[in-house]
Amino acid sequence: MTHALLHSRVPVGIEARAVRVETHLAPGLPAFSIVGLGDTAVRESRERVRSALVNSGFEFPQRRITVSLAPADLPKDGGRFDLPIALGILLASGQLGRANTDDYECIGELALNGSLSPVPGVLPCALACGESGRTLMVPADNADEASLAGATTLAGQRLVDIAAHFTGQAPLTPHDGQMPQRRQDDAPCLSDIRGQPQAKRVLEIAAAGGHSLLLSGPPGAGKSMLASRLPGLVPPLGRRQALEVAAIHSLRQPRDTDIFYRRPYRAPHHTASASALVGGGSYPRPGEISLAHHGILFLDELPEFDRKVLEVLREPLETGQVSIARAAQQLSFPARFQLVAAMNPCPCGYLGDPEKSCGYRCEKAKRYQRKLSGPLLDRIDLHLEVPAVEARELLADREGETSEQVRERVQRAWQRQWQRQQQLNRELRSDALDTLLRPHREWLASAMTRLGLSARALHRSARVARTIADLADSEAVARDHLREALSYRQSMASTP
Fold first, then answer.
1. Structural domain contains residue 414
2. What are 131-166's pLDDT values in tens digits?
């Protein structure tokens, strides 16, 4: 037999497309060609496969070898095709006998000594393989991740282990991965924060409705501490959500199975580029906003980010996904994240403080705040000024509610939302909001004019009011709920 066919997969976005790895041995001068729109890493597979076969005790055929990765117009990258290429050469040269590989999909990179190295993007491939009904073969270091998908998984440490399975000399047993236990996030406790009762209240509202939040205040007021407590206030991921998150992270590097149900918490530095946030590359990979899917994206020192970088957040905040267009393909990654941002009110950070302020009270602060565009600020549900903590509060004994106590109320609010509308309040559509606002039309019209709110800002405040009502176990949204929600839109506008 001079021809062999094996099955593999390549991630395209968060999906995995099937790839047929065909190998043909022909007479003629020795040559090794790989066709099928592969990148440099794929073409370099020739040298890795050659060395791995020889160092594993197999014969490398001195013939004209052609490997086709089909479909030919699908871009392919990485070393994931090393294993199926090596097996194809062994099958086509008769070194594996008449082994049947039709019911298998193979993924893995080969080291020069024949050992198998882990590759990124295994979980999307495992999910697709499970749907096809085939058995997935992966490096041992990818086995736990692949088993999360529920597909039958075989894992090997070396090429000889996989070859011995196909020849029947030492069949591999399915990998029995332990499903991670659902446990609450071990985020820092809310009770560690001294004072700041209003900030804690807003943090609870943000957690209960999944709302975006902007904290503004002087250095040392506790803005970053408050943001780091948010993961401990929200319920853990469900299994379907956890698989989505793990599949996205798998495209970068495998997500630790110990934190399988933990909501992502991403905090990129303010020097991050637009591509770092959105994602990109010749073979697009997810950026920070997709890695924060079903979790929290924390942007500290918000005005220090490049304005063009911040503008890329506008569409994902509305749609919950990001589209990346390249010449060869266009991909979409999910990006339904909760934005939490923090900033100083001015460059020195002490606007209005008679002792610490730099003295430029108005114009310098306005120029600093104008680094943030109006459309972006309009998409942030909650704006709050966080004052400096007084010495007596800072040195007081630890008191206040714990994260667990607040989380119980947040979970009840989530349950009300899912029972009523099968989604969080931040995702309420306009028709549902119109019904909610109808009893308060005249009062809201006056409030819109007085506060200078846009229609988008009003709708976002209405969603916040719905969350406040849920926290109060109220079926209807009362005017007090709306009044509190609107108060969180005035902070930025009232700054000099």
1. yes
2. 999 999 999 999 999 998 888 999 999 999 999 999
